[in-house]
Specification:
By secondary structure, this protein is an alpha+beta fold. It has ten helices and 34 strands. The protein has three domains: 303 residues, no CATH class; 111 residues, no CATH class; 158 residues, no CATH class. Helices cover 17% and strands 45% of the residues. The longest helix is centred in the middle third of the chain and has 17 residues.
Length: 607
């Protein structure tokens, strides 16, 4: 009795001195109470532990781990823990795409995330990203572009470079699939474990086109299903070992990248253990995921999974993994695609709002929509119109053109998306796109014509006179057509000059623009960029250009035709960039029923 009273006495004294020691833990605190970390210097070969991941459904399972060693400074300022994994299906499957981020524990202390593997390895030998490096590089970083509104119910961009005065992308958003990009059979190297890019609503052909682009980022395009229903037993939560998805497209078309949660601290989670796109600060929806099955393969075993419920936002994507916040939600852009061709189809969906990914995802969705209903081989004409509502502007940005293709090249869709990408990634101001629409009309025939000849009915022309210009077009497998263009000669044209009259297609007209008015291809503000991008030269336009010499100059893309002689002299010799000669030009564009190619020129004297 005496010892019992003594114990009670000491307990009361302890509670008085250390009252916080017995404060009840919240759910998140209780979840993380066992998450004691093991430093990299404590880890030795031969140590054994376990890992957590999902092999089926949303049940977190345990697999065995044995430390083989530590690769010190394997990357700049980075270490890697080498482990062998056994248990569950790993003996048959090897490392599974979708395991990225699976937490590994030794003596119930978290050491890091399964993140790397070796190509063509027969055993499940993996590289583990140390947890302390993940915490250091992913937590406590100021967030950018985060938003606090919930989701609605219902892709490194190629750099721009200058070419003859015009800003154009260095490479297309999607490169044609090249088998040489695949690993060679005798090549063994360490790489991030592939993350399955699970898509639905897309054809196999569209996936092939995407493969070369996404594989460079460690993503493995895989056809799957749409959103899975939440578990009937309990709601799936983002806890260590659970599957997590980065949602890129949602709706009639779906795309999500699946990985595994490594660590949870309050509402913050760490996952993957390696970069997703290595994009730094991001704003991508984060969802729980459901695993249907493990697809075993000698090359790449993979989790067949689908997103379930969006619970937060992925806000960091860096070398050691991704970080997200539960309860913060990312904005998605409503999109619609309408395809009219052999069959008519409409698609409504949302895409992640990202400078890097949005144009790629629009191309990806458009390819999937077209490939679902249209033929793969044979000639066709493709008329595309992309419209985008930009916040703060009453009228939409409209990009429209028509293209001729022999087989599916995707050049037409890619060409439109490149210009849209220039708007999203402009250097002048941040923009918000409220809505994107894409109309694609496909005609399964060849409607092309060449510009065969040009002629005028007079040997000379007078100032102020209207000059009829006859242009002969030769349609494919058709009879010659004559188009007459009326060109008004200005009153102030200088007598005795030779005027150069050119009839050409859109491509040649653009090359003339770059030589004669290079300034307008280098916008100096956002409105100029909108005008430049929106003013696409249409491939079915017949363009007649008459070159004139004028007194004046151009400054940063703006024509200055009426300068006083003294100002003109000073600016002409200012030795400053952005100043060029003013070449006046009369440009007349006439739409035709054909996609034109070729050019013809003549000269005419001003009397």
């Amino acid at each position: 009795m005496k010892s019992l009273l003594q114990n009670i006495y000491f307990l009361i004294i302890f509670l008085i001195i250390f009252p916080s020691s017995f404060v009840p833990l919240s759910n998140s605190q209780a979840l993380c109470a066992h998450e004691i970390f093991m430093d990299i210097d404590e880890i030795k070969p031969g140590m054994k532990g376990y890992g957590k991941t999902v092999f089926s459904g949303d049940d977190i399972e345990i697999f065995s781990v044995e430390v083989l060693g530590v690769l010190k400074n394997w990357e700049t300022k980075g270490d890697l823990i080498l482990v062998k994994m056994t248990g569950s299906p790993l003996e048959e499957t090897g490392i599974i795409a979708g395991m990225s981020g699976s937490p590994v524990y030794i003596n119930n202390r978290l050491i890091g995330a399964v993140a790397y593997g070796w190509s063509f390895s027969k055993e499940a030998i993996a590289g583990v990203s140390p947890i302390n490096e993940m915490k250091k590089t992913l937590l406590n970083i100021p967030e950018e572009n985060s938003s606090n509104f919930p989701p609605s119910i219902d892709w490194e961009l190629p750099l721009l470079h200058e070419n003859n005065g015009e800003l154009i992308p260095q490479t297309p958003l999607f490169q044609p699939h090249d088998e040489t990009l695949n690993h060679q059979a005798n090549e063994i190297k360490i790489t991030p474990i592939l993350s399955p890019l699970v898509v639905s609503g897309f054809s196999g052909k569209a996936l092939e086109e995407m493969k070369s682009f996404f594989s460079s980022y460690g993503l493995y395009p895989l056809q799957g299903g749409g959103y899975a229903l939440p578990s009937t037993q309990y709601s799936t939560k983002l806890v260590p070992g659970a599957s997590v998805a980065a949602v890129l497209i949602r709706g009639d078309l779906n795309a999500a990248v699946v990985g595994t949660v490594t660590y949870v601290e309050g509402n913050n989670i760490l996952a993957f253990g390696h970069p997703f796109l290595h994009a730094g600060a991001t704003d991508i929806p984060m969802a729980t995921a459901y695993v249907y099955a493990i697809l075993s393969s000698q090359s790449n075993s993979v989790k067949m999974a689908s997103p379930v419920e969006i619970l937060g936002q992925i806000n960091q994507d860096r070398r050691s993994g991704i970080a997200g916040t539960i309860g913060k939600f990312s904005r998605m852009i409503p999109c619609r695609i309408e395809v009219n061709g052999a069959q008519n189809a409409k698609y409504n969906f949302e895409v992640a709002d990202s400078k890097l990914l949005t144009p790629v995802l629009v191309v990806m969705a458009a390819q999937g929509a077209v490939a679902a209903t249209e033929k793969k081989l044979g000639e066709r004409c493709v008329d595309i119109e992309l419209s985008a509502m930009i916040n703060g502007y009453d009228k939409p940005l409209v990009l429209n053109n028509i293209y001729y293709e022999y087989n599916q090249t995707w050049f037409s869709i890619d060409n439109i998306a490149q210009r849209f990408a220039m708007i999203l990634n402009n250097q002048f101001q941040e923009i918000t796109v409220n809505e994107i629409g894409l109309k694609i009309n496909i005609l399964d025939s060849r409607k092309t014509a060449s510009i065969d000849a040009i002629r005028v009915r007079k040997k000379h022309v007078q100032p102020g006179e209207v000059l009829p210009v006859d242009v002969l077009l030769k349609p494919y497998a058709g009879n010659e057509i004559c188009k007459t263009i009326q060109v008004k000669i200005p009153e102030d044209v200088i007598p005795g000059n030779l005027l150069e009259v050119t009839a050409c297609d859109a491509k040649f007209s653009q090359s003339l623009d770059r030589g004669r008015a290079a300034g307008k291809h280098l916008p100096v503000n956002f409105d100029q960029l909108l005008d430049y991008v929106g003013d696409m030269e249409k491939n079915n336009n017949l363009i007649v250009r008459v070159l004139l010499s004028k007194n004046g100059l151009t400054y940063k893309g703006e024509g200055l035709p009426s300068l006083p002689p003294s100002i003109l002299s000073i600016m002409s010799h200012a030795g400053q960039s952005g100043i060029g000669p003013l070449l006046g030009e009369i440009i007349t564009k006439v739409p035709t029923n054909y996609i034109l190619n070729g050019k013809q020129s003549i000269q005419i004297l001003v009397k």
